[in-house]
Structure formats: structure tokens, C-alpha cells
Amino acid sequence: MSTVTGVPAVKHARPALWVLLALMLAGCNEEGQQALGTLEWDRVAVPAPAAEKIVRIDVREGQRVAAGARLAQLELARTQSQLAALQAQARQAGDTLAELRAGPRREDIAQGRANLAAAQARATNAQAFYRRMQPLGRQQLVAEAEVDLARAAADNAQAEVRAAQQALLELERGTRSEQIAQGEAALAAAQAQTAVQTVNLEKMDLVAPRAGVVDSLPYRLGDQAPVGAPLVIMLVGDAPYARVYVPEPIRANVRVGQAAQVHVDGRDGTLQGRVRMIRSEPTFTPYYALIGKDVSRLSYLAEVELTGKDAASLPAGVPVRVEFE
Questions:
Q1: Domain 34-43+236-324 in CATH 1.50.10.20
Q2: Is the pLDDT score of 258 beyond 50?
């Protein structure tokens, strides 16, 4: 009697066992579709434009600021002096260009004409002396060398006349167009350097590039940070995003634009999200160093943006769990 009744008992136990196994597999499958990580905000770093001392800090960590709000200020003395020197060079280049455009003065032209007249007078005198020496040389009343000297002096005087003529012609024709172009280029270069230094001076007064929250102030009042060092780090954006590591077994099923459920540690309920980025390269061990089941240990970095309105108040660094639909 017990044997007969035992068979139906086994038959009734098999469906319950299959249901239990199905629930366990479903739980494992659901767990396998998850990725773990933390909440993050987009970060913007305000770098040091110059290696100058911090003379004022206008914000504190955790303070929300608007775009363009003053954050801190660096010492201005050196940058102001460099700007003043460049402005003086720009003025000098402008005056040089104005002089080139104006051309020679009337006094310079008059001086050129006087130099030409003097050269012509010397040439006439030298030529007359050479003509007087020629018959004396033929009569051998003077040495032949003296005649040669007189001829050389006459030729030299004629050359001085031609040089004075060309110098006067240069003054009368005015400044060449190429010289004016060079002056314009020099002025443009000086003005550009002045503009760059003006921007550098403005950057000494650090302002918020976007609206956000001051997350960190790595340097304090009186510090002198190197060029490019982040003086202020801000959290910006409308909402944080989940930065998670996708396991290799579900990597093929995760794509950009895919919807996801985000579970925030310490917060009831879930938040809606959407995958905005997933890396194609694994974050940890390279795939070619793994074989067999070890490949499942690979992880791929992904970012899931939160679309809910309640996400804007969440802090950074909170652990999250993401389930992909």
C-alpha cells in the first residue's frame, strides 16, 4: 500500500522541483544582466593659467554657483607688467608704420638736393683739374702718376654725383609698398601679442565656465599652483549618471540608447536610465590573455544617464546597480 501511494507522491513532486529550478535560473539570469558601479557627475576643472599665488577664494566646497560667477583670483602684478610692455611695443610698431606711410620729410628731400649739388660741384672741380693735368702730362712736365690720380679723382667725383642722384630719387619717390606691408605685419603681431596677454590677465580672475556645484578646491589661499593645475573642480550637468562595469557575458546585449533600470544604494525604488556610452575595449585584463571561462571576467566601462527628475539631488560616489532591459 505504501509502494502504491509512493509513486504518485514522486509524480506530484517533479512539477514543484521544475518550478523551483526555473525560479533559480531566472534569478541567476536576472543577476547576470546587472552591472555594478557608482553615481558620477560630469566634472569641469578650472586650471591655473599661470604659476601665480592665489590671493582670493570666493567660493567654498559644496556651493552651487551660476555660470560666470567669480571663483578665485591670482596675483596680477607680473601679468600686468608684461601687458604694459607689450602695449608699449604695439604703440612703437604703430608709430613706425605711420612714419612709413607719411614718407620722407621735406627737410630730408632738401638735404638730398643739397648733397647732390655739393657732389656735382666737387665733380666739376675734379674734372677741370684733370683736364689741366692732361697737357702737362703729355709734355712730361708732371709725372704720369699725378695725371692718373687726377683722372681717378674725377671718376670718383662722378660716382658720388650718381649716388647723390639716386638717394634724392629714393626720397622723392617715397616709401616702398613692401616696407609699408612689413610695418603693418609688425603692428598686427604686436597687437595680437597684446590681445593674448590681455586674455591672460582676464583669466587671473577665475570664473565658473558652467553652472554647477563646487566639488573640490585642491589649493588654498596663498598657494602657488603650477600652470595647468586644477584650482577649482566643479560638478556640472542636470543630473548624475551611473558609471558601471558591464560583465563580458552580457556585453553583446548592451548598446548605446538602450533603456535601463538604476537601483541606488540606500534609496527605495528605481530610476529610469539610458545607456549613453559603452567602451569597445575591456577595462581590465586584455582578452588575448584569457582563455576558456576566464573570458567572462572581462568588464567594459559604460555610462547610463538618468532621465528621472528626482536624480538631480543625488550625490556622487553612491553605489548603484543597473539592470538592462
A1: no
A2: yes
